[in-house]
Amino acid sequence: MKIIALLLSLSLLVITHELGHLGFAKLFGTRVRRFYLFFNWGFSILKAKKFDGKWHFLLFNSETPDDWYVQDPNKPKEQWELKEPDRTLWGIGWVPLGGYCDIAGMIDETKSAKSLSGEPQPWEYRSKRPWQRLLIISGGVLVNFVSALLIYSCIFAHWGKDELPLRNATLGYEYHQLLLENGLQNGDVIYSVDGQEMNDLSVLNETLLMDNPSELVVRRTYLLDSATGRDSVAMVRILLGKDFRTKLLKEQPQQLMAVRMPMVVSDFVAGSPAQRAGMETGDSVVSIAGAHAVSFSDITDQLQLHKGETVKVGFFRHATNGTMRLQYADVQLGNDGKLGIFLRQPTEVFKVRHSDYTFFQAIPAGISYGWETLGTYVSSLKLLFVKGGAQNLGGFGTLGSMFPSTWDWYRFWNITAFLGIILAFMNIIPIPGLDGGHILFTLWEMVTRRKPKDRFLEVAQTVGMLLLLLLLVVANGNDLLRWLKNMF
Question: Percent of the chain, pLDDT > 70?
Fold first, then answer.
């Protein structure tokens, strides 16, 4: 299901991106020779083109020029690209690494400078004015970003928006090492910063990162009896060290805290060790092998200590009279140290604040949320430039892991919108091989009135593609290493 969701999401993003290029190209009378979803190295799954008044199709067709003809015994072999060249050849490749829009007269991954040795034609990209070329090459980024804003607006209009008030996280929060070193404990809930009351997680995180706080008041839970789970609560005053600000500026963490999630069973994977041991949906895990553990991170840490063993798992179960009973089950763990369960979402566990939007209210809300998401993502990129930051890169495995194991339209569209924003931003980075590289060279031409030579553009394109290929190898290599580490 994760693979299907990832392929569908990426397909939608690639199609909308390339349609952005195609739309502006057609607007300015520029021919688009091919429009492809996925790459067609060697052969295509599907080719389609309309000429002679009807559509023609080829399935699983090899990429030799002599094969691009209409298979009609009454006609000679005629190349498809020579039939009504102002029409686009549509296709689906077999390598799901993106797609492309082959614009006539443009040096990109489909053409070299040698192929453009003839005189520029009026229907070619190179014949268009700089501002027209700028719009053609920016179209993909623009459509991806606008599509993401539109998706967010539709999500708000259909589902509304759920927000978790700061104090409704009953298990508290997990904190960055900087805060732990200054006296906080995982599970604390911050109530105020320098006397200012805190009610929103994003505001609190921004206050800690951007201001220079010196005093925190937190709610701390003390466990009294690990068998019954009874506890007490106290308010604790914490003074941050004088070097807190210095260390914060040095490390520049994007996030200082995250919600501690309970492990409440939503469903089971096939052959689940927990289900075989008698656990049911709705059970909430609170201990592993006698060790008290109520948050997801604490539980998974304990499970990893007992991989391949039979452990006593303690959990609360709702009784028929509305109370909760503490029960135990002996679970035989596999070598991965997992219970084999799906978790309930935060909106199913905590008391959230729900907001409904009309269609016209959802539009500005979606636009605002999209811009906030872009800002957060761009800020997080600085983590790639710290020591060991390249290890944070992820490839298709990381993208696939974002999707749930069971189909969920709400999460699918949320993730697709987020990936659309990522795709738009990454493509506008001024690296040859990306749209941003073409945009940079076009802006250079507009400012200097000097057009870069075709040979220079070809070399830059080749270098850029090699850099992108290297990035692809590193990102997916990190996924492979993480998978091997989890396996062994």
Answer: 87
